[in-house]
Structures are given as structure tokens and as C-alpha cells.
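Box 4.2: Ligand-aware structure prediction
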Amino acid sequence: MSSQPQSAVPDLSIPSYLNADNLGPWGNYLRQVDRVAPYLGSLSRWLETLKRPKRILIVDVPIELDNGTVAHFEGYRVQHNVSRGPGKGGVRYHQDVTLSEVMALSAWMSVKNAAVNVPYGGAKGGIRVDPRKLSRGELERVTRRYTSEIGIIIGPNTDIPAPDVNTNEQVMAWMMDTYSMNQGQTATGVVTGKPIALGGSLGRREATGRGVFVVGCEAARRTGLAIEGARVAVQGFGNVGGIAARLFQEAGSKIVAVQDHTGSLYKSSGMDAAALLEHVAKTGGVAGFTGADPLANDEFWTIETDILIPAALENQITEKNAGKIRTKIIVEGANGPTTTAADDILHDKGVLVIPDVVANAGGVTVSYFEWVQDFSSFFWTEEEINQRLERVMREAFAAVWQVASEHNVSMRTAAFIVACKRILMARELRGLYP
Ligand SMILES: NC(=O)c1ccc[n+]([C@@H]2O[C@H](COP(=O)([O-])OP(=O)(O)OC[C@H]3O[C@@H](n4cnc5c(N)ncnc54)[C@H](O)[C@@H]3O)[C@@H](O)[C@H]2O)c1
């Protein structure tokens, strides 16, 4: 037995269920939180709250495949913080999803929801599955079994999932139906991002890309960059990247480079985003598009642009490529695309980074509108939704911009200051139970 005195409070900030030597995206999130600590004043006594997810559920998702065999997939739902309201966050289907990743994504949802001041906590879900390898029937069975398994912790007043990478309106319809069948009543408010015919909101599909566009314009305006003629590069040409590209092009910008999981494209005079969207809808990726030239994947990051929009997955801008990036503004459509080491390199180069927790908050903002509309069974026009979305995004951007100038910190640290203060204030006002 050791004679060393034991501290009453052991350091458990790295949970035993993660690999302490390789924390993955959760480590990136922890480093971001640490940067906020000096700005929280007396609220910093609650900081540890943000470093521990409130609740983690890991589920086995078995389904019968079309060929008669049984396959098992690993599923997660993490509720990071629910001090300000029910958990809220998407569900990701990807073969590389890990617990660390879902934890980080859930925490970024807490920060995001607080940064734009919607009354939600943060949550996220995921399944380790490559949905492209499943038939439609298999995808439906995976979705329904997963929803049933996490049904014990989700609900319209407790935790409300939404689409994320590789999930869409149809997946949300199956989730809503499964939850409703288990409850014995239709519960449209259990998920957002549903089809319009099932209580979905007008404008939801485009909301994240539109929010990226709105904050991109705000950043450009405040730095004296003209949107018309601006050179824009987009990584990820799915829901977020594709819509953002289309809106920038409609405003007169040139989409000079694009990259997705199938390859990269370049066209110095700007490619037709609408035509590229059609090509992706038909073929599943940007490769083979004849309206631009193919580009080596590594070169994508070196193209000179005014605005760069990472809208694919996390950890795309790292210390390896940050030094090569030649752009003025980065608008993070994806969650967690930039590591903290890359953040510092970009900062030193004078690149303005609009962080994910503000830049891609348009989706959750219109999800909030959808949830409100479902509860009141009263639906708004698309114009009303877009106007309200733009107002929320502009106000959030302005508040974060002001804090960044006040403390002379990055927009990311400023967004975390605004958000963490709101979350920890709720924690303090509520007090610790029991
Ligand atoms: N959909 C939303 O409302 C929403 C809201 C907030 C944040 N986000 C974030 O935006 C990002 C994209 O989400 P989405 O909904 O557009 O997903 P999506 O599935 O519609 O599109 C993902 C895109 O990323 C590309 N991609 C995947 N792996 C890649 C790789 N290794 N290299 C280059 N490109 C790759 C895919 O080809 C695709 O174009 C994610 O980080 C997601 O968490 C989405």
C-alpha cells in the first residue's frame, strides 16, 4: 500500500473509457475549453462540467441483412449538457464514427446552441456504419433499431436528434415513426430535419448552408472584402457545402475549387454550383464533373482564395496543411474541421476563422424553429423562417465579434466565452442536485 496521501478529488478529467494518449476530437474540444478558462471569472468554478458529458449511451444495433445474415453495428447517443434545455444534435452514419468523436460533437452542440442562444443543451449520435454499403431496406432497419435502442433517452422534451453526415429527411421520418410507434402516439417533435409533409420546416434543408453564407458575408463586410467576385473554395459538397456554394455563387462569388470524398476540382473563372449539385445528386460525388478540371487532392488546400469553407468532416485543417493555406477568411461549415495547432498557425498568418459553433449554427436554429412549429402545430412561411434565421445569425456574429475585439482573442475563443458563460450561468442558477 502506498503511504502517499490521496486527494479527495481525483483527476478524472480524462475518462477511463477514452485512450488518454489519443483523445481524438474530444482532445481538440478540451483544448478549446481550456482557452476560455481565464475569461470566465467566478463561473470558472463550474468549468469541469463542460469537460464531462452528462450521459453516454452505447448501443448494439443488430439487423438482418438482405442476404439473410445478421450484422451488428455500434451506435452512440451522447448528451453533453442539458442545463439550458433538452439535448439537441444530429445523428451521423459513418464507418469511422468513434465515441470520442460523438462526445466532441455533442459538446460543440452545447457551445453552438448557447452561442446562438437557442434554449437547448448539446447532444449527438452516431452509428459506425457505411450507409453506402446498405440497401434501402437495411438502412431503414438500422435506423429503426438504433432509434428503439436510444428511445430510452430521447424525446421531444429531453433530446431531439436531427440529420448530420449521411443522414437525411428520410432517416428522420423513420426515426420519428419508430419513436412514435413505441410511444403509441405521433410525436413529430422528437426529431427535426423531417420531410415537410411530416412536420418539417420550410428552409431547414438549406439552413446550415444559408447560415454559412450569412456569416461569410458579415465577415467579408467587416474586413472590407467584396462578396461579388470573391474566390471561394469548398471542401464537402453535400448539404452544407453544396448549398453554401450555390448561395455564394448567386451573390456573385466564384467557386474556384471544390473537394469531396470522390476527388477535387478547379476552375479559375468559377464553376456552376447548381450544375455541380445536379451532377452530385446523379453520381454521388464531384468526380467526373465536366464543368471544371480535376485537381490533386493535396493541391486543394494551396489554391489562392478569399473565402475557404471546410464543410466535410473534422480535423481537415491541421498543422500539416495550415501553413500552405492562402485565404483571407475561413468559414467553418463542418464541425471541428480545424485543430488547435492549425488555429494558431492561421492566426499568425492573419487568416480570420469564423468558428463552426457560429458559422454552421443555421441548421440548429431552423431546427429550433421546426420544433417550435411542431409544438404549436402552426407553420411559418419560408420567408419568415429565412428572415428569422438571418437575424439570429447576424446577432450571434455581432456579439462574438464584439467579445473578440474586447479581449483581443480569436472568434473561436470569443464564441466559447459567450457560450460557456451562458451554460455555466444556467448551471450556477440551477444549483447542484441534490
Ligand atoms: N447538415 C446540417 O444541418 C449540419 C449542421 C451543422 C453542421 N454540419 C456539419 O457539416 C459537415 C457536413 O455535413 P453535411 O450535412 O453537409 O453532410 P453530407 O453527408 O451532406 O456531406 C458531406 C460531404 O463531405 C464529403 N466528404 C466526406 N469525406 C470526405 C473526405 N475525406 N474528404 C473530402 N470530402 C469528404 C462528402 O463527399 C460530402 O460531400 C459535417 O461536419 C456536419 O457535422 C451539418
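In the box above, the bound molecule is nicotinamide-adenine-dinucleotide. Residues 36 and 416 are 6 Å apart (CA to CA).
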